[in-house]
Structures are given as C-alpha cells and as structure tokens.
Amino acid sequence: MKLRFLLLSLFLTLFSFAQNVKSPSEFLGYELGSNFSRHHQVVDYYKYLAATLPGMIKLESYGTTNEGRELLLAYVSTSENINNLKSIQDNHMAAISGEGASETAVVWLSYNVHGNESVSTEASLMTIYDLVTSKKELLENTLVIVDPCLNPDGRDRYVNFYNGFKNSPYTVDKNSKEHHEPWLAGRPNHYMFDLNRDWAWATQKESQQRLKVYNQWLPHIHVDFHEQGMDDPYYFPPAAEPMHELITDWQKEFQKEIGKNHATYFDENGWFYFTKERFDLLYPSYGDTYPTYNGAIGMTYEQGGSGRAGLGVKVSNGDTLTLKDRIAHHYTTGISTVEMAAKNVEKLNEQFKKFYGNKDFTYKSYAMSGDEEKMKSLAKLLDVHNIQYGYTKSGVKGLSYTDKKSGSLDGDNYKLVVSTNQPKSTLVTVLFEPETKLSDSLTYDITAWSLPYAYGLDAVASKSLINTSEKTLPNESTTLNTNGYAFVTDWNGMDDARFLTELLKENIKVRYSHEPFELNGKSFDHGSLIITKSDNTNKKEFVNILEKAAKENGQQITSVATGFVDSGKDFGSSSVEMIAPVKVAALSGGSVSTLNFGEVWHFFEQQLQYPITVLDDEYFDRIDLAEYDVLILPQLYTISDARMETIKSWVRNGGKLIAIGNAVSVLDKDKAFGVEAKKLEEKAKDSLNMPKSYALSSREYISNLITGAIYKTKVDVTNPLAYGYNDTYFTLKLSGDGYGFLDSENAVYMEEEQTPIAGFAGANAQKLQSNSMIFGTEDFGRGKVVYMVDNPIFRGFWENGKLFFVNAVFMVK
Fold first, then answer.
1. pLDDT digits (tens, 9 = 90+) for 28-62
2. Could you tell me which of 133, 378, 405, 473 has the fewest CB atoms within 10 Å of its CB?
3. Beta bridge partner(s), residue 198
4. 13-22, 378-387, 685-694: least confidently modelled range
5. Distance between CA 732 and CA 792 in Å, rounded?
6. Average pLDDT over every residue of 231-249
7. Which class in CATH covers the domain with range 584-683+701-810?
C-alpha cells in the first residue's frame, strides 16, 4: 500500500511539474506544426524554459548573425549536472590529453543550418520540452547541448516568404506559390553561403562564432538535422561510402548502432527510411564530418520535405506529408540519439579518450613556405580550429606538393610547420594530406581541398617530426619618410588588395607598374603599387591616411627619393599606370547561382571591403550600364538575346565584363566572343553513346565530371590578370568543361596530358583539360572580357585564387 501511495505521489508530482511548464504549443499560442515559428518566437520559448527551469537549462548567447539575430545554445541536463557544468566540461576536455575520468556523455544537437529546411527548429522545441519533462531520466548522466537554429537569417527569410504566400488554409497542391520560393531562397545565410559547407573554412560569421564554442566542448555525438527532397523517405546513418580512411571502426560501428535504435521506432510507426546511401563522410566541412574528424560520432539526419513542403504537400505517391509528420520524425531521432548516449556513457568516454591517443600517421609534419601574408592568413584559420603550429628557418625535406616527388624547402626563410603530434592530429591530417584516398568515386561533394594548395604555399609532407623554434612570425612596422618622392609596396595577396581599396576609398591616387623594376637595391615585381606625393598634393592628410592603411593591412612600404629606377621603367613611364576607383556591379536573380553570387557579394563587402552594386535580373534591362565600369556575371545558365546585345554594346564602349564558371559557356554560345568550349573527339563521343547498364548509369555519367579536383596550371606572369603570382597555380576544378586557348592573353592555362594532382576527375572530362584556358582576357571593342573558367573564390576558402579576382577588377585594362 505504501509503495502504491509513493508511486501515485511521484506521478502526481511529475504531472504537476509538467503542467507548470508550458509546452511549445501552449507558449506559442498555436499547435506546434500548424504554423512556422519565427526566430524571435523560438528564442523567447528557450528563454522561457531557462527562466522556468533554471536548474535544468542554461542558455548561452554565442553571437549574432549578419542581420542581427541572436545565436543561442541551450545546455540541458539535471540540476546537479547544470550546477557542475564547468567541472563536466573540464573532465571531458581532459580526455583529449589522456587524463580525466568523465562520467557524462556530451551530445550536441544542431538544427536548421539550412534555413528552409525549417522543420528542424520546430522539432527542437518539442525535443527540449520532452527532455526536461517526460524524458528527464535520459539526462542523469547526459549533457545535451541544443543549437535550435544555426542559420536564423535564412530561416526567417523562408518563414516570412511562406507566411506571406501560403493559402488559407494551406494547400497540399505542390504547384501553388506557397511551395515555390523565390530566387533568394531560405537555404543559405545572409551572404548566400551554405553554412553546412563552411565548418572547416569558417568564412562566415555564424561559423566563426559557433566553432569558438564547439571547440571548447568537442562532444561525443554531434547531429546535424536536415531535410531533402519531399519525395524522399527519412535518412539516418550508417553513412555511405566514401568514408575517409581516418574514421575509426568505433565511429562507424556506433553510427550503425544508433541507426538500429532509430529503426526500431520507425518500424513501430511504419515510417519509411533508408541508410548507407547518398550521404558520405569525406568532405571535411560538413556538420557531420568536421565533428567526426574531431572525435565525435558525427551524423546527418535527413527528413523529406525542405522548402517545397510547407505545412503540408501531396507527394508523388499520393500521400500527404505534413509539417507535423516531419516534426515527429526529427523528434524521434533526436530523442533516440540521446537515449543511445545515455545507455553508452562509459563506452563513449572510453572511445573519445582513445581517439585522442597516440596515432601513427604516415606524415608527421607539414611544412609550408612562401609569401608571409599567406602564411599568416593560414595561421588565422588554424587558430579558429585550435590547431597548433610553429615556424622554423631550417631546411625541410619530404614529399613535395608540387609534383608528388621527394623535395625540400631550403633557405633562411620562415616556414610554417603543422605537426600531427597534437590533439587535433586527425583534423590536421585530413586538411593537409597531399591527396585524399577515395574508397568510392561517387561522392556528395568535392574530393580535394588540401590547404597548401588553397593558400598558394610551397609545401612538403614529412615523415619526421619537425622541430619549430618560433610560434609567431615577426611583425615589422613601417615608418614613412615623409620627405620621399614616392612610396612603393609589393602586390602579392589580399592584404595588399585591402590596402589598395582603402586608399581608393580615401581618394588617394595609386599607380601600379606593368614591368618589374629595381630601386635602392630592392626588386619589385609586376603589379607593385606606387603612391607618389605629387599625385596627392591636394590631399592634406595624405601621409596619415597612408600610414594608417599600411598599419591596418600589414604593409611593408618602401620610401624612395626618386622615380629614376635602377632597372626597369621609371615612374613616369606609360608602363606605370594609374588605378582607377572603378564602380562595380554584379548580376543577381534569374538563372544566376545564388551561391556564386553570394561568394562575389561576400568577397567585396567582407574580404575586399570595396563597394559593389547588386543589379537584379528583374529590372536589369531598365538600367543604364554606362554608370558602371565593371559588370560581374556569376555562374548562370541563360541570358536573353536582347540582354546579351545590351551587354556586348556596353563592353564595346569600354566596359569590363567578368564571367565566372558556367557564365563562360553562356558567352561561348553567343559566338561573338573569342572563347570556345572544347569537345570530345568523335571516337570518344561514340563511346559515350554506347548502351549502358541501367544499374551502372550513374557511374558511367561521372566519367564526364570533375568533382572538385586540383590541377597544376601554368601562369603567364606578364598578364595583368596574373600580377602577384609565380609561374605555377593550383586550381580547383569543379566542372568537366574545357575551353580552348584564346588567340592571346591566356593568363592561366593547362598544357597537354593533364591529370589532377589531387581529387577525382572522370576519364572523359580529363580529355577536355589538356591545352585548355583557365583564366584569360580578351579585347572586345574598347572594352575587355575576363574569363574565369574555374571559380577563384569558391566558398570563400580558395585563398590563392582571390588575387586573380582583384586583378580582374583593378589591373586588367
């Protein structure tokens, strides 16, 4: 009798407790799944829960988005665990150095990295509510970290669209407007970047702020909640091949065990799902792979729906998929994940410590040399990931990245060294390995990304541990001789580019040299900047502005007393030309790639810090292009004949057109320009048209593709498009298209018999790369066309391509 009374008392207490905590539906004033919640409503609910249950939930605001929305984390556990949060964190992180004895599992749940995959955030509301009410038993030895929305700007963009166009009541007819987002859909962030491809590169504000906190925890399990096509059943791990060879057997096996647990719940409900297909674990910048390379069980969960589904939609088999259905599925896998963590605390801690133990990697150190600005830029990225590094002046031997043969880095110059003798050794190996091993050529993303290529640094991979003596490069300050004739600085990278744009915005006149020259015993290469006092006599604050810009951008400025050079062209020569403060515009909308447009937009505003005008497809034909000096065509798929004629007329009259990626093929189709796509020989074509096995059709198709492979190219250093480069450039190819040489002005090109130095390229696609143009320029009337077959600013991380883009804007005349 006593036992019954106690159980009844406990039930009533729990029931009363649950009644005192409002559910998401009670708090929001509508049934969860009957409306899309705006970001501020979600934040309000999380703050309500934290205020109501301060012992079980601790909130942390870890930053804001570009549009000012709050980025929020919720730490969820028992009162005892929340009170000892710092101790749990310390014990957990001590395992990285082989110490500590944590008795808690750390699970991180990330929702809505793609804004229009909108069920995620709604599911987080139900998940956190049940964790602190009906599922509290899962928290006894588990800490759950919830990020309800990684991409608030994208989410609100989608929600505002949907609420503005949905039928009343909503319609399941997929042809209705509510199921068709406009060009700028909710998937990307403010700058149209895919945040799920930015974990490793950290180009975006949201990623930078999140990684700062993530690397303070490094959870045992990380889940990234997504959506896919509305006709697809639910996906959960185990993942597909290729899986990176450094993923441990334990990580693979526990993914499988979690998947089996999910399957029991889905089977009970008769829900369809699939595993081991499509979603691989290779590219290091996803929300599943980046955590995996940092010791977690990293997983992607994919619900059918995405931006097409709305509150409900009729799918191809005739069934209706509702937002409530989608919430139920993501809620189930979320709770199932926490359940598996709670059941396997000891094993998770044991294997996490083992992951960070000693490892026998082939290469023990990666050493890089080259322009100090590029080394400093790479060092900043390493700092974001808590990767240790140092510098040495000693000679280094190892596998050369240039030709994959034995090589060395000699001389007294500083070399940046990153070793695998550190906690982040697995991540280091993945980011720096000369070539990634592929277990399957069918991949979901690019297959090459090695950072020495991306940053344009000479590098060797050494099988020995390289000792370093310096932790930072010396900072040299510049003091200007105000009595000088002119001030000269090199042209090598983005710091130089930002220095230039800052001066141009301050109306400082800047010249650049088309020819190398020597003065005062120092050599200056193509593109070196020259700022003369006589050009700026009317600028009273000239020297102060120059000094400030130099200091902020790390410039080493040489003051010279004369324009009479020791060799080369004097400063008054026609080879020393003025740089005009050009007015730049970029096309958006229509068939323009949102991602490539976003790369351009972000590049100008956040990296180059130079103004750009966005011209939308909707009203482009009503604009007077004569107002602009430069027009950028991001990747796009079609231009009307009338619009093409307008653009050609503008170029003939002196405009400069920059075409990126697929935009080059659009110009090729017009046939008015000198660019021409290469085609396979007839014999090769016949082989493509032969009957193929239905089952193997996708594998046959990839023979025509290049899925993000790195190629070694030749550079004409005398071409203004290539100023600041040496005679070799490693390009990231994202397409199997190839273009023949221009009649002249091929700035970057590939020679015969080219194969990728890293990454996968299909056999037929490779044939089109020999003797092909990568970057080039062409005179067109009084104007200029710049062709960029490969995207030099891809995802903002291909650092060594960025100066080509700056040159296209300012140097090419």
1. 999 999 999 999 999 999 999 999 999 999 999 99
2. 405
3. none
4. 685-694
5. 8
6. 96
7. alpha beta
Using the predicted structure, report yes or no on whether residue 697 has a pLDDT greater than 80: no
- What residues are paired with 558 via a beta bridge? 488
Helix axes 323-343, 249-269, angle to 10 degrees: 130
Tell me the Ramachandran region of residue 767: left when phi exceeds 0, alpha when psi lies from -120 to 50, beta otherwise.
alpha
- pLDDT beyond 60 at 535: yes
- What pLDDT is recorded for position 694? 47
In this structure, what token pair is assigned to residue 795?
């995802």
Of 608, 598, 601, 653, the closest CA to residue 626 belongs to 653
Average pLDDT of the chain to the nearest whole number: 93
Task: Tell me the chain's radius of gyration from C-alpha atoms.
Answer: 29
3-state SS class at 302: strand
Q: Are 553 and 474 in contact (CB under 8 A)?
A: no
**Alpha carbons 290 and 19: distance in angstroms, whole number:** 40
Question: Residues 283, 293: contact at Cβ < 8 Å?
Answer: no
Return the CATH number of the domain spanning residue range 2-355: 3.40.630.10
Smallest CA-to-CA distance from 132 within 219, 40, 45 is with 45
Q: Which of 351, 334, 392 is nearest to 368 (CA)?
A: 392
Examine residue 169 and say whether the peptide bond preceding it is cis (omega within 30 degrees of 0).
yes
C-alpha span between 160 and 148 (Å, rounded): 18
Domains 2-355 and 584-683+701-810 share a fold: no
Token reading at 376? 């400093």
- Closest Cα partner for 124 from 101, 99, 150, 143? 150
Query: Where do the domains of the chain lie?
Result: 2-355, 365-462, 486-578, 584-683+701-810
Q: How confident is the model at residue 451 (pLDDT cuts 50, 70, 90)?
A: very high
Spatial separation of the C-alpha atoms in residues 90 and 93, rounded to whole Å: 5
pLDDT attached to residue 686: 52
pTM of the prediction?
A: 0.94
Q: How far is residue 769 CA from its own chain's centroid?
A: 26
Determine the straight-line distance between the first and last CA of the chain, rounded to whole angstroms: 94
Residue carrying the six token digits 């036992």: 3
Q: Tell me the C-alpha distance between 793 and 528, whole Å.
A: 22
Q: Which of 266, 291, 267 is nearest to 281 (CA)?
A: 291
**What is the Cα–Cα distance from 125 to 331, expressed in whole angstroms?**
9
